[in-house]
Amino acid sequence: MHVPDGFFDAPVSIGAGVVAAGGIAVCLRGARGELDDRTAPLAGLGAAFVFAAQMINFPVAAGTSGHLMGGALAAILVGPYAGVLCISVVLLVQMLFADGGVSAYGINVTLMALTGVLVGYGVFRLVTALLPGNVPRRTAVTAASFLGALVSVPASALVFVGLFALGGTADLSLGTVTTAMLGVHVLIGIGEGVITAVTVGTVAAVRPDLVYGLRGGSAPLEIRGARPVEA
C-alpha cells in the first residue's frame, strides 16, 4: 500500500497532500478530547506497535505478502483522532527510511491514516451498536474490531483505485488495477482483522479502561487511598 514517488501525477499528489494536511490539522484539534494521562502514553505505544508490526509480512497469495496497516487498531485503542495522528507519524518515519515516497506522503496518509481509521472505526462503532445487548461486551468489541479492520483495508484499496483513475502514471488499465488491489487487499484485510481482534481482545481482557472503544462500558480506574484502621 505504501505508494512510491512518481506513481501518481502532480495534481493528485498535491491534492492528496492538501487533504492529508487538513485531516491532520482536524485530528490535532480533536485529539485534545481523547488524550489524557492514560491514553497519551498508550498512543505512543500504539504507534510504536504499529510501526513494528508493519515490518512483519505475512503470506497472502503466491509471491505476495501483506502487513498490518493499523488504522482500525489505533483508533479503537486510543480514539479516531489520535489514531490518525499515530498512523501519520508511523508513515512519516517510514518515509524517512524510503518506505513510501516523499511526494506521496499525502497519498499514503489519505489511504492508510484517514481512510483506514475512518472506515475501520466507523464499522467498529456500527457493529457494536447493532449487536444484541446480551452479547458479552468483550466478545462484541473483539468481533467489531475484526470486522472494522477487515473492511478498512479493501476500502483503502478502493480509494487507491479512485486516485489511480484520476492521475495514475503506470501503464495499467483501471480494471487490472482494481482487480489486483481488491483481490490482494481483501486477503490482507483478513490478516489485519485477526491481528486487530487479538490485540484489542487481549488489552480489553486485562485493562479494559485502556481501550477507547470500550469507553462508557467499563468503570474508570479508581485510585483508592488506605482505609483508616479502627482502634
Automatic annotation (TrEMBL):
Pfam family, one: CbiM
Any Gene Ontology CC annotation: plasma membrane
Keyword Cell membrane: yes
Top-level taxon of origin: Bacteria
Keyword vocabulary terms for this entry: Cell membrane, Membrane, Transmembrane, Transmembrane helix, Transport
Transmembrane residue ranges: 12-30, 42-62, 68-93, 105-124, 144-168, 180-206
Family matches, as Gene3D superfamilies: 1.10.1760.20
Coiled-coil portions: none
Subcellular location: Cell membrane
InterPro entries tied to this protein: CbiM/NikMN (IPR002751)
Topological relation to the membrane, as annotated: Multi-pass membrane protein
PANTHER family recorded: METAL TRANSPORT PROTEIN HI_1621-RELATED (PTHR34229)
The protein, known as: Cobalt/nickel transport system permease protein
Originating organism: Thermomonospora umbrina
